[in-house]
Specification:
Layout: H1 3-26, H2 32-51, H3 58-80, H4 85-92, H5 95-106, H6 112-130, H7 133-136, H8 139-162, H9 167-189
Helix pairs in contact: 1-4, 2-9, 3-8, 3-9, 5-8
């Protein structure tokens, strides 16, 4: 690998990692699913010129919008409300062993004992991370983050079955299909961003 290629890999990793910090800040201001709705609308506006390139596989893209566009992001971002961004970034990596196991079970792909062993290590690491006191105090949100990773793994198999497709078109169509799903879920389940409790009023004689 050339140094320039290694630098590009590091840049992509840094951007992906920083993504969780930005999301953590965003879900502190807007409910997670409402935030994703706004994000999807912006995505459609930006990628609309590319969406005309792909109109023959819309049923498959709609199915992908349910698992990846709606379920994955709704679960992952809601989980991020209560857990640290660093923890969420690690929990998202469970998508890799989930995808490998699903590919072996559904597509007949061979995993091998070496990969199986390392996947076991990965899951043990997640269990240890989830047992950390501050994380363990939010089991529901940890479960949401992991469930979001499982949805991502399922979406990876769906994308594989779609075959080669323009990346700008696929992101545009997923955003277009997922935006109303996310907005409907936000209207049903979200009442607004968490707000700090107001400080108690002090009397004239209070110190």
């Amino acid at each position: 690998m050339k140094p320039a290629h290694l630098l590009l890999v590091l840049v992509v990793m840094a951007v992906w990692g920083g993504n969780f910090v930005v999301i953590k800040l965003a879900v502190g201001e807007l409910p997670p699913m409402l935030f994703m709705t706004v994000r999807y609308v912006a995505t459609v506006i930006l990628l609309a010129p590319f969406m005309a390139r792909e109109t023959s596989r819309l049923p498959g893209l709609f199915a992908l919008s349910v698992t990846l566009g709606f379920l994955h992001f709704a679960l992952a971002f809601t989980g991020l409300v209560a857990i640290d961004a660093s923890v969420a970034a690690v929990l998202q990596q469970t998508q890799v062993p989930f995808a490998a196991l699903l590919a072996a079970a559904l597509l007949g792909e061979r995993v091998g004992w070496w990969r199986t062993a390392f996947m076991g290590v990965a899951f043990v690491g997640v269990i240890v991370l989830a047992g950390e006191p501050r994380t363990a105090s939010q089991p529901r949100f940890v479960a949401m983050a992991i469930a979001g990773s499982l949805m991502w793994a399922i979406a990876s198999l769906q994308a594989k079955r779609l075959g080669p497709i323009d990346p700008f078109a696929i992101n545009g169509w997923i955003a277009a299909f997922a935006a109303p799903q996310m907005l409907a879920a936000s209207l049903v389940f979200e009442s607004g961003p968490p707000r700090p409790s107001p400080a108690p009023a002090r009397g004239r004689g209070s110190p």
